[in-house]
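no rush on this but wanted to send it before i forget. theres a chain ive been looking at and ive put its sequence and its fold in token form underneath. please have a look and point out which stretches look like helix strand or loop to you. thanks a lot i owe you, the record is right below:
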Amino acid sequence: MSKSITNWFKPAKEERGYKRSFYRKSLLIIALIACIPGLITGIGIYWTATGKIENELQRLHQSQIKQRAENIDDQLAFLEMTFSHWTFDPKFDTKLKDIDFTYKYDQVQELYRTMIIIEGSHPLIEKVELYLNKPRYLTMNKEKYRFLADPTEIDAYNSLIKEGKTIFWTDRLHGITGTGGEESLTLVTKLPGGSMEPFGVLIAGLDQAKLSKLLRTLTPYNEGSTLLMSEDGGWVISGGGKLSELDQAIQAEFMKREGKDDSFLFKYKNTTYSVSSGAFTRLGNKWIYLSAAPVTAITSPVIFISKVIVFISLGGLVLALLFSWLASRRLYTPVERLVSTLTGGSKEAFRFDNKDEFDLIEKHWNELNRESESLRGKLEQQMPLVREGFMLQLVQGYLFSYSEYDIRERLRHYGRDAEGKSFAAIMVQLGGLSNLEGRFSSGDEELISFAAANIIEEMTASRQADAEVVNFHDMCIGVLVMVPSDASEKLLKEELHRFCEELLQAIGKILKLPVTVSISSISPQAKQIPYMFDEARQALSYRALPEDSQIIDLERLNKTDSQRKFSYPFALEKEIIHSIRMGSEDEADGLIEQFLKELSQIGSTELTARQGMLQLLGSVLNAMVHSGMNPVQMFEGANLFDELSAQKGPADMLRWFRQRIVRTFVQELISKQDFHLKQMVEQVILYLYEKYMTDLSLDSCAEHYGTSPYTLSRAFKQITGINFIDYLTNIRLGKAKQLLRDSELKITEVAGQVGYQQSYFNRIFKKYEGVTPSQYREMVREG
């Protein structure tokens, strides 16, 4: 507390000290509450949860190893499948028995190239070798071939041919295939593939370094060991390249346990390892993998974190004690500043009118309340806007949690006495903007909605109707009508119909728009208001086509009859999709218009037309997918079905479908087809130069190259700059001028050789050259 306030406030040090003690104690309690849970949590994790977490992490480690082992298994399976396919290559068929390696240089070179390709077909293959026992014993790799003479070596290779399996793994060839004396796995398959009498084998020696690197993926940490071995331990491959003492100890321990445990703890040189094991079958042989990781590598992060939590909590507790003492000395400063602000520095006001600082705060709080009352009066002026917001929330169902009493009270609060009243909903839907011919344009929806809402408000006011008009700003206006609950429902319906007819006439006369009005049922419950508006909005989709002003009574609506008239034009759908695929945008637009006319036959409803257009949209999107396009990417993730459903009437649906779907599809199709079309046009040009003397046409050329005349014509014009007929005519006339200059053929013969009849030839020649063929020949020879 400041010195000036202390001089005026007589109960000085004891009371002031008490106040500061209160703040200090409160702050200390808060600090303890904040720090002690962290301290308890850290100790609990350190002393009680470490063991459980250790076991759980060990289980997760074992699961992780199994997943990585499955990846290795898949890679080996892929290697086996890829290698076995080479045995069926034509280069390794029975013709190899008769090949002369001395004189058949081309075939031998082809074999060299194939060996190189096989070695590059999989990253684990280091060296590939071919062995044949016919016509002579020989081995061959990508570098050379050699004939065998050593019986021991020959027997080693022949033993592979005598093996009972067509393809198998073996470790018997190290030192023969050139992999050295280390443990080396080789994959062997007999040649030719599928033969009952093999005469050779194809041998793939694995890259020891890459296989070891692949095995090291089974160890999730830099420390530890990974082993891959046969079931009987005949061969062992280490992830480290060479067997270490740790590898040998782990293998001995596993063999001692006889493979009974999938996971066990193994202690070696004062370090405990978590050993996980598993097996997979490779071409009928069982291979076993072992992965050992130090347990401390798994649990040490948890132990470290628990210690960090304990030390941080202890440090936080110490800091909290220190800060609570320091902060209590300064915590009262904001209260002091608040008092000074409220009094404006007036010592007299504080000394005589108030007992303490909080009395002064209370006084000013009351003054603020009086100001709030003044502001509340100003808020009343904004009540219409607030009421409009409430009505929007009510009719759209956002107040579903309100009770019947709450809704009626809110209506009463906003000036509508709903006591003893029933409710009816009227939805007014204005027609779309497509057929207004310039009176309104796209983007004027809010302006139209505002004008229509004003017309409806004036009509309800003139009839002294107890109603609320709700503007949805999307060319839909809702009217909540409150009627006496004891009145005859039949008379109320008749009155509502008369009111709706007046609405149709007034809006149609002023705005020149088609209007559809739907009337809900009458309900005595205010909680049913959003449901009545929702039903009335849905009823708008049952308006009869073609569009015209009409009234739809929800209770009189026979939805079954309206839906029974639905007839979907499947044939037109196929034509539309075909024309879009061919890039015929104008043709597609015309077909879609015809499609919509058939959906909108007299007696149909907008709902049936909308359902049909939604079905067509789905079919077109499916056609896009089959054409190799991605609709999600093309339309940037937009919900096209929602966009189509939001269109007002058939005219708007037609305009949207043309601009949003057909144009986008055709443009994307054209961009993707430009390269292919250029190739096609180049082929057609070559074809024209070859067949110009025959009866050629745009249709015949399009059919010859498997495309439509429209697509070919447009592509030809786009790429060459002239249309198809002019290009063909130029070729023919160029050949005709050459014949007229260099030959003595008659005009009829020249015409026949360039694909024309004489009469037409004379006309077309004069049209393009300005003279007849005879005159052209004379001019050329005279010149």
User: Anything to note?
Assistant: Residues 747 and 773 are 7 Å apart (CA to CA). The longest strand covers residues 271-282. Residues 13-86 form the longest helix (74 residues). Residues 1-22, 177-182, 560-564 have pLDDT under 50 and may be disordered.
